[in-house]
Design goal:
110 residues; globular; mainly alpha
């Protein structure tokens, strides 16, 4: 995905592969990624989240510019990987159901 993030967040461009518009895509990315990749993303994003959320809070979902929407998707990917880093210490949830069985009824329209 060709991504451009808002000014002030260009250092996060290296994680463009995590700019994913659906929860299904974000979940699949976590499950198929390595812990090195996940940890690098987590360690770069977590310290920036307060700043990111304050920036995102300036926009309504309906009027959010594309670069801001990409930043929002990046932050949602952080929410997706947090469980792998903080709880399971691996990309997949052990002992859980096959995540491909879950069907999301409604996604945010990118």
């Amino acid at each position: 995905m060709n991504t451009q993030l808002p000014a002030g967040f260009s250092d996060l461009e290296q994680f463009a592969q995590w700019v994913l518009p659906t929860s299904t895509e974000r979940n699949r990315k976590r499950r198929t990624g390595s812990m090195d990749e996940i940890n690098a993303f987590y360690n770069a994003m977590l310290p920036r989240m307060e700043e990111i959320l304050a920036y995102l809070d300036q926009f309504s979902l309906q009027e959010m510019p594309q670069d801001v929407r990409r930043l929002m998707f990046l932050s949602l990917s952080l929410a997706e990987v947090t469980i792998a880093v903080e709880l399971f210490h691996e990309p997949k949830v052990t002992g859980g159901c096959d995540p491909e069985r879950f069907v999301v009824v409604r996604e945010l329209n990118p």
